[in-house]
Design brief:
The chain has 3 domains: about 1-65 and about 210-435, Aminopeptidase (3-Layer(aba) Sandwich); about 65-210, Glucose Oxidase, domain 1, CATH 3.50.30; about 440-580. Helix content is about 40%, strand content about 15%. The protein has 17 helices and 12 strands. The chain has helices at about 1-15, 15-25, 35-50, 110, 130-140, 185-195, 245-260, 285-295, 295-300, 330-340, 380-390, 415-435, 440-460, 465-485, 490-515, 535-540, 545-580; strands spanning about 55-75, 80, 85, 95-105, 120-125, 145, 180, 200-220, 230-235, 270-275, 305-310, 365. Strands 1, 2, 3, 4, 5, 6, 7, 8, 9, 10, 11 and 12 form a 12-stranded mixed beta sheet that branches. Helix 10 links the parallel strand 11 and strand 12 (about 365).
Length: about 575
């Protein structure tokens, strides 16, 4: 362990702020819209750096459904209001739409309950997150206007469809035009509403949405003992505007982690596979989804963890305790954060955001944001927290400039970027070098058991989950025993131990995070833990003995069967592991 710590210290001590800023500034020279020539130039730069470092690269060309906003006009009472439109929102007719405007507060389903907005434009407080867009559409609105709380308007993608559409989910694409305005424009619109009741707005939007060819760039630093097993280290290159923080600094961080690991490559048992995505901002994670679909078998068999990086080193991003982690990966994050900063890591549950396109495969994940602003620094932080996974977040977003024209290199703090890079480097080195994978399946099993007990209590006896809870308790017991057993694994059986950790871990990740089968992708909307059981909420809203209850119970029995089967497979895997 002493030798391991010495190597880790050499790695983190080699991180260079000068190199990080130089790479960031190069990448941020271009406005990197997905599938464009400027984005391709940024990919060329990253590929050249990887080649200069001695790695062989592969650039895949994928067809993906990409949407690029091309302008918006909004006026009310003859007064022009600056506005932008959003990816995946449909365009208006060339001459636009004239619609009455009504305020609907935050635009939750409850806010629409007392308002008939059929055929109206709705003024919604906050940024254009997909769930608010969907709520407006379901309520029958003809258009949505999002009132940002910040001076600069946040670019967004409003589709709840994850990745490119198929015939099965094409109907998730938005069907109504949408725009956003800044704080001053929002005040103008509210003033007209207060003075005139329901004033008329004139709205024109242009959006270029079609199938495009986008790049995915992959390079691998091979491990020495089991090079077929790999940590997937990923970040998107495409951006809104210059995107210095989102995601130029993250791309620079990836290159720097590679640089500092290279001199210690002889100590890396597993491979580090770097993947640079397109289609994140303008295709709802189309690049990472394409990779998950087209390299499914390799990911399912060999990917030990997905280490994602987004929006690092922001000026004022002093909060490093709330980054995204799963129960099985939290200790890796906590140890790295404490080693680098001395702070105690709390962690946040992953939501349906970022390039988390590998949860249905059961791949454990660590990080998306590793650093955030303190609470209260960003007026849109609440919407960002909802986008990332729900209420309760202690971080305050990644900066008011996020997704705006102002995301330029001056919004970065080189010292904080170095700090973030050191956290990633320490985490990556541990994941790549330890004989036994540092994945805590007992913590994952305990978290799953807790969620199942919560669902059992919530079901109020209308769905019997006692057998599922009992089997999850068995998994917890076996996982706890296996964790103690595996902590003393000798090198001769480390590979077998890791195989059990991966197989059982994938089951627990799927149950904790995914409702789709392992070959698909859940929508880009918030969902509760163990989303397979989410229909219990609908069950409770039905009358006992009704047809509606019978239909939902039929669905839930099938889903309970899946939970029971997955847990049974985990039990068998852990028992075999204990017999090694």
């Amino acid at each position: 362990m002493t030798e391991h710590n010495e190597v880790r210290d050499r790695i983190v001590g080699s991180v260079s702020g000068e190199r990080l800023m130089a790479d960031t500034e190069e990448i941020a020279r271009w406005v990197r819209l997905s599938g464009t020539e400027e984005e391709r130039a940024a990919f060329d730069y990253v590929e050249k750096v990887l080649g200069d470092l001695g790695l062989r690269t592969t650039r895949h060309a994928a067809r993906a459904y990409v949407s690029l906003p091309d302008g918006a006009e909004l006026s009310i009472g003859g007064e022009y209001v600056p506005a932008i439109t959003h990816s995946m929102a449909p365009a208006t007719p060339d001459d636009g739409l004239e619609l009455p405007l009504v305020q609907v507060a935050a635009g939750s389903p409850e806010d629409y309950a007392s308002e008939d907005v059929e055929g109206w434009a709705v003024l919604v407080d906050g940024i254009a997150i997909p769930e608010k867009a969907l709520a407006a559409q379901k309520a029958g609105a003809a258009a949505s206007v999002f009132a940002n709380a910040d001076e600069y308007v946040h670019e967004m993608i409003v589709s709840t469809l994850w990745g490119s559409p198929t015939p099965e989910d094409h109907d998730r694409l938005p069907t109504i035009p949408m725009v956003s305005v800044g704080a001053a424009g929002a005040e103008t619109l509210r003033r007209y509403c207060e003075e005139q009741g329901n004033p008329t707005v004139h709205l024109i939007t242009k959006v270029l949405t079609r199938w495009r060819e986008i790049p995915t760039l992959v390079a691998q630093l091979d491990g020495t003992e089991e090079p077929e097993k790999f940590v997937l280290f990923s970040g998107h290159i495409d951006s809104w505007h210059r995107g210095a923080m989102d995601n130029g600094s993250a791309n620079a961080l990836m290159l720097e982690v590679l640089r500092v690991l290279l001199p210690e490559r002889g100590n890396l048992r597993r491979s580090l596979r770097l993947a640079f995505w397109s289609g994140h901002s303008h295709g709802r994670y189309a690049g990472s989804t394409w990779y998950a679909d087209n390299f499914w078998e390799d990911l399912e068999e060999n990917c030990v963890l997905h280490l994602n990086v987004d929006s690092t080193g922001g000026r004022g991003a002093t909060v490093v305790t709330e980054g995204q982690a799963m129960a099985e990966t939290k200790k890796v994050a906590a140890d790295a954060v404490h080693e680098i900063t001395g702070e105690d890591f709390n962690g946040s549950r992953f939501g349906r955001s970022g390039d988390q396109s590998f949860m249905a495969l059961g791949v454990p994940s660590l990080f998306m944001f590793v650093s955030e602003q303190p609470l209260g620094q960003d007026a849109s932080a609440g919407d960002v927290a909802e986008l990332l996974g729900g209420p309760g977040a202690k971080g305050g977003g990644v900066g008011w400039w996020w997704h705006t024209t102002e995301d330029t290199p001056d919004k970065l703090d080189p010292e904080l970027l170095v700090r973030d890079t050191k956290i990633y480097a320490a985490s990556a080195y541990r994941l790549l070098s330890e004989e036994v994978l540092p994945l805590d399946v007992s913590a994952s099993a305990e978290k799953l058991l807790s969620h199942l007990r919560t669902w059992e209590k919530k079901a109020e006896g209308r769905l019997d989950l006692s057998a599922a809870v009992s089997r999850a308790e068995e998994v917890v017991g076996l996982a706890t025993g296996f964790s103690a057993h595996s902590s003393t694994a000798e090198d001769a059986r480390a590979a077998r131990t890791n195989e059990v950790l991966m197989r059982v871990g994938k089951i627990l990740v799927r149950l904790n995070y995914a409702a789709s089968d392992p070959y698909g992708h859940d929508p880009a909307v918030g969902q509760p833990p163990v989303p397979l059981l989410a229909p219990i909420d609908h069950l409770l809203a039905t009358q006992p003995g009704s047809d509606g209850e019978a239909e939902i119970l039929t669905l839930l029995v099938r889903r309970r069967n899946r939970v029971m089967h997955e847990l049974a497979v985990a039990v068998r895997g852990l028992r075999r592991g204990m017999e090694q």
